[in-house]
């Protein structure tokens, strides 16, 4: 295991993968199987919640670059989720 002061590339890869999954569930990335953009708010919320939990549990234990990557991912995903939820609510009316 790498020391706690060194960046672990697996952490960055994990955060990026989860952010891509959230983007997929928010219709930002086409489904690789169908080529269509689809929205799954429940799945997107689950991924965002998991990243928020990760940020909370690793607070103070990340390198600056890891912390920035995680916070940037969340800062980008939250408004996308809110916008998708708003559209979903408008369509339900």
Provide the descriptors you would attach to this structure in a database record.
single chain; 93 residues; elongated
Helix % is 55-70%
Total DSSP helices: 3
User: Average pLDDT value?
Assistant: 91
Count of extended strands:
0
Order of helices and strands: HHH
Distance between the termini: 52 Å
* Unreliable residue stretches: none
Which radius of gyration do the C-alpha atoms yield?
Answer: 15 Å
- What summary fits the major beta sheet? none
**In terms of structural class, how would the helical and strand content be classed?**
mainly alpha
Q: Which percent band covers the strand fraction?
A: under 5%
How many domains would you count in the coordinates?
A: 1
What would you call the shape? elongated
Question: How would you characterize this protein structure?
Answer:
By secondary structure, the chain is mostly helical. The chain has one domain (10-76). It has three helices and no strands.
In short:
The chain has 93 residues and is mostly helical. The chain has helices at residues 9-25, 41-57, 64-92. The protein has one domain (10-76).
Strand-helix topology:
Layout lengths: L8 H17 L15 H17 L6 H29 L1
Helix pairs in contact: 1-2, 1-3, 2-3
């Amino acid at each position: 295991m790498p020391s706690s002061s060194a960046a672990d590339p697996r952490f960055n890869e994990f955060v990026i993968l989860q952010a891509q999954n959230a983007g997929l569930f928010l219709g930002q990335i086409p489904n690789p199987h169908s080529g269509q953009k689809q929205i799954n708010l429940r799945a997107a919320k689950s991924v965002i919640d998991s990243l928020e939990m990760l940020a909370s549990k690793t607070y103070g234990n990340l390198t600056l670059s890891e912390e920035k990557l995680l916070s940037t991912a969340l800062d980008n995903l939250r408004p996308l989720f809110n916008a998708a939820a708003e559209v979903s609510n408008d369509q339900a009316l």
